Amino acid sequence: MSAQAPSAVILIRAERFHPNPATAADNAFQSDIPSGQSDRATATRALAEMDALADALRAAGVTVHVFADEDHTRPDSVFPNNWLSTHAGGYVAVYPMYASNRRHERRADVLEMLKSDYRVQSIVDYSGLEPDGIFLEGTGAMVLDHVSRVAYTARSHRADIAVLERFCTDFAYEPMAFDAVDSDGVPVYHTNVVACIGTDVAMIALEMIPDEERREQVRERLSVNGRTVVELTEEQVREFAGNAVELCGRTPEGRRYIMAMSARARRSLRPDQVAAIEESCEIVSVDIPTIELAGGSVRCMIAGVHLDRRPVADAEPTAAAEAIDENPGTIDGQDLVDTE
Known about the structure:
Helix content is 25%, strand content 23%. It is an alpha/beta fold. The chain has a single domain (8-331), classed as L-arginine/glycine Amidinotransferase, Chain A (5-stranded Propeller), CATH 3.75.10. It has a four-stranded mixed beta sheet with strand order 3-4-5-16, with no helix packed on it. Strands 2-1-15 form a three-stranded mixed beta sheet. The longest helix is centred in the N-terminal third of the chain and has 21 residues, at 39-59. It starts with 7 loop residues before the first strand and ends with a strand.
């Protein structure tokens, strides 16, 4: 298993998908449903896009755990990376969410599947910070370098620096916070729309970091171990080029790195940028225009599993995957650590 690129992922098949009105105010990437398109048509198109992503990842040799969600009150549940992350050594983090209607996206059945199928030592739950107005929306708010142990974080009200530092202490990362804004001076709502870190390549819109000294510090930290840094433009970021994720697939010849992104993101890249990425990764792209109306793309849809598999004989059968959550918003594992 690669430290940076997980070989298994979690996807949520949100059957009632639609862009979330509660997140539109600070998500400049969010768009309205096309005029005249019904909610049912939107949901149907989104389901087809989710299934296409799952199929493309499986075809690339990635293990895909799919959980169904029929709850119409969870419009953004297709983006599980905001409430969940997993880490080598058997650690899981659960995060505090900014929008109140996103907080019941957290699912006990997902955690139970992880504990059943993978080696989980402890779950650290930061969601108790929500009543205090303190938020850190997972690997949306942070882009993690699992190799050098750095948590790159664009400051926003979805990424509180105090809880970032607490996370970094608990999980042994170095915090690297910075401001990132668009050409209108609007802060970027999530770090993972401007940056993607792979094993040997990183994509980042350094031009959106206004502090020149901090910009160079980020560049140097990303490249210190020989990683190639592909600089994105703000225009490419608006096409979701930064919202990609490196995964570890498998072919008959062995393991390989893939870079998963949307077809829209892939089309925005210049030939030289594609060549730099393909030095270490095969690009796997899927067209997801309906999902992208919600202001997130392929990276947001994927919660990577950085955990060791249990041996098949040890794993208990679970009905969680492909099932509907019957107890939304309840996180009740006995080994959960509350950090309120």
